[in-house]
Task: structure prediction
Amino acid sequence: MSEREGLAATEEHTIGWLGTGRMGSAIVHRLLNAGRPVTVWNRTSAKTGPLAARGAQVADSIAGLAGCDVVYVMVSGPADLEQVVLGEGGLLAADAKPAILVDCSTVSEEASAGIRAAATAAEVAFLAAPVCGNPEVIADGQSSFIVSGPVKVFEQVRPDMEAVAKTVVHVGEQEQARLVKLAHNLYLGMMVQSLVEVVTLAEKAGTSREAFLEFFNGSALTSPWIQRRSPELAAGDLHLTFTNELLRKDFDLGLAAARKLEVPMPATSIVSQLVQSAIGNGLRDEDFLSLYELQARSAGLSGVQSARL
Amino acid sequence: MSEREGLAATEEHTIGWLGTGRMGSAIVHRLLNAGRPVTVWNRTSAKTGPLAARGAQVADSIAGLAGCDVVYVMVSGPADLEQVVLGEGGLLAADAKPAILVDCSTVSEEASAGIRAAATAAEVAFLAAPVCGNPEVIADGQSSFIVSGPVKVFEQVRPDMEAVAKTVVHVGEQEQARLVKLAHNLYLGMMVQSLVEVVTLAEKAGTSREAFLEFFNGSALTSPWIQRRSPELAAGDLHLTFTNELLRKDFDLGLAAARKLEVPMPATSIVSQLVQSAIGNGLRDEDFLSLYELQARSAGLSGVQSARL
Amino acid sequence: MSEREGLAATEEHTIGWLGTGRMGSAIVHRLLNAGRPVTVWNRTSAKTGPLAARGAQVADSIAGLAGCDVVYVMVSGPADLEQVVLGEGGLLAADAKPAILVDCSTVSEEASAGIRAAATAAEVAFLAAPVCGNPEVIADGQSSFIVSGPVKVFEQVRPDMEAVAKTVVHVGEQEQARLVKLAHNLYLGMMVQSLVEVVTLAEKAGTSREAFLEFFNGSALTSPWIQRRSPELAAGDLHLTFTNELLRKDFDLGLAAARKLEVPMPATSIVSQLVQSAIGNGLRDEDFLSLYELQARSAGLSGVQSARL
Amino acid sequence: MSEREGLAATEEHTIGWLGTGRMGSAIVHRLLNAGRPVTVWNRTSAKTGPLAARGAQVADSIAGLAGCDVVYVMVSGPADLEQVVLGEGGLLAADAKPAILVDCSTVSEEASAGIRAAATAAEVAFLAAPVCGNPEVIADGQSSFIVSGPVKVFEQVRPDMEAVAKTVVHVGEQEQARLVKLAHNLYLGMMVQSLVEVVTLAEKAGTSREAFLEFFNGSALTSPWIQRRSPELAAGDLHLTFTNELLRKDFDLGLAAARKLEVPMPATSIVSQLVQSAIGNGLRDEDFLSLYELQARSAGLSGVQSARL
Result:
């Protein structure tokens, strides 16, 4: 067999989890709740304590995960990913190797392709599988896995993912999962700008943000995200979830991908420039819902009365 | 008492309904289901038959509604509205007049203000109350009433509306309901453009529209509207619900209102130009989801394989 | 002869000029310099003094112009235009009527078409002929006449116009001259926004506005307008020539015309929204070169150090 | 003296010129016409023939230029630049070195900074000096030099440049000249889009492109570039000068620089997306004046009747 295709389909597999920060821990909790055996490792070992108390095995080193059939990795960026997979003492350096490596970190297509090539060379099947959702969303079972890689391999780990998340989708054979996550974030920025334009319009006509949002959230246009954050916007008291500077980074990556693929993005592009204007107007470190603030000021409104702004 | 404020709060009121097209009939059905007594009138009297069969009284003339405590009007535009309210044989021409007139038609702020002034002069309280939803949505109890006018009057009819719709919101004391409905439609256009940009991006990267939408519809960003229309977009088989030309009209009205209120609308504005480009590129009479078609062609994709396009 | 076509081609015609404000006076001066006989009338008669001193005849009333072969009108807007042409004691009310009426005011297509219809009914040939240039530009012979109406009539008055202006162009048989003037002003707004984006970019990279403009003004991209205003922009000392509010009015009219003609205007549209943002950010009554100020602030620069701003 | 500052001010310097393609040859011709002694070298030595015939010395190798006081380089991109300056047998590899190195190629800031660092380490003063203009413009003495680097060094070579070009501007001490050239090209793209929007608007109203451009070119808004290309646009017969794909490259570089400097570019950004749409709509290899074609089609016009399109 010239190509590694993961596990035999009927095999009951063992799971390793590398990286138990807030996101990783939330996912492992759901795996344990579903009765899956999980072995965990984390650079800062203290973070594995609560998981051990719930029944997880704790490995002493990354090599201690290598014997698992499937190893999931969730670290904070491409440098960490490369180190724990390719570096000295990393997953692919051990004699024993997992059959399948699943990366749940948020990294670029290029970094993802590099890890895939190395895994493939080591006869380890590789899936890119970024997650949408924050720890609370994961705990509620409302998160999503976006997966790309060989579809046969995907089918083998899909039951694990379905034990964790509401939505598990295979979006391609290569690195498409990375792009799909960026597309999600581009839409998020556009959704917020679209919302703040119509909120401001209604507000200046004399409709309170609260009344407008009550109407909007009862319509077929609203989204769970908007529903969740409407009380903050109505009250003018924005909590920090994701800064304008971080949103700009996703727009940079998403627009670069669009450029490479030769896809024009007219609305995305103008929202990107508005995020930049927000930064130039002093809102760099504010939550990106402060696009409302930029819009309100440009409409001659006073903006929100928040201590932060 | 110098100001007409509708009904005494405890009064059990009678309801007249003027205009029983598809939308009006759907609403009256729900009122009847809720056990409210309703007298109806329609220019084409045949349309009242199914309602009579369900227990509605049918008036012979508009004057036959004037004795009702509350009369709702739902006609197709400002000219019809003016005729049935202000014209010869119209509601305000009768000796008996309702205490409250509620207009559920979609008309401009200016037309609404004109009717309000005439009603007020005739000591009839007036509410502007456009409805969001199509007949199916209304039948399912998922529609919304957006209401503006005196809040005391609103409180008197609110129970009627709550028997019909999921969401009933008071958005101001004057004509704000008209603007809020336009704001809804501006957001709708922006939502669709935002969606087709990210769908096209994912598609060109090798992710099928179906897979992308499956992911998207599991995320916190999706909306009931997108969920409902995703199968069509995935299949590339768009059904006609609302043409680009009609969407352009709402953008014209919405941007004119924004201009009058001095609210910049950068994202709205660029979407408006894209709708115009769609029209110039031959998509005038297509469903406005054909913004996908314009975007796909501009991305060098073949667009959807629909017989219509 | 069923159609009035102005003058016999060989006729040496007499000229009447109605409206000797700053623009009108500047044009009449040039006509007088060219040796043309001109009779003038102005509502505020004092303004005709300097022209009388240069040799113009001064009429006591509008009727005193009606005997001229060609009467030019240059008043401040459509209401004045209608009054002096159609009103009591107006040009078309006199028994004697000019063969040709040329309106040099800035009015809408609709107002222009109304005057044309009335003139045609009175067997007076009509030309729309707005002028580009301010009084200084006119005095220097650098202005432009944009003319629309019957081409035979145009040919008869073209020598007058060529005595005044550098450029005299016939742009159509109906009201096209009005649109062409608007198109000029739309381009002006876009040119300024384009300029301030690149100026700000260079400035933030460490190139002074002065150095950038010196380069730019030596390139094939610059325009006489930019060359004239560069010293102000370099010095950050903007003089008031045309406010953002007035520019917005031209954008309103131009975009409305584009909408009616179904021409998408993506760049125009975004500049229009930026002008609105400038107004919302407190620059309503500033010269529209203050688009620089909006851009500079959004780029995190301090903007110009002007007492006005 | 710790810092190399070029030549003693009074010195009459010798000039080397590396790279005699069409642009380089046009510049050397002007230097020779001005009586300057120039030694040239070109990879394809045949191209130096016409210059030798006019009196230039021809070096056998790059090392043959190293003895000149000032060496100008004009090659086709960063790879060539690095090779002829830093590579084996390159300018900085020779024992003798010029006092001043002036790079007239079009390269990125990063490449420019790398060459500057190497030159400085070798005690050779360095100027970045891209040229605006094509060979015809250069021959007519209408080109521009945009120069950045130490101002004292600039003053030493300024007389050479003034013998060649109409405009010679010092825009900063580091790599600013590279950005200023990009800013020029961004403005060029915006100017063309602005023009085609108003041309199309007038055209759809019934004013021919020819008449509109005649008017426009007589106004204070036109530019030499527009004047030069108006006959082509009027005739609908566009010659290839610079493709949409090449313009897109400059927009990519310019917007990346703006992003790095945190300057929002709303109008630039939308034009960038329109260039991408033009490419997606089949205009990749057309002259970028074909932005007219995209705009005309989107306005429901037939576009230009050119065999190319």
About this structure: Chain D has a mean pLDDT of 93. Residues 34 and 163 of chain D are 6 Å apart (CA to CA).
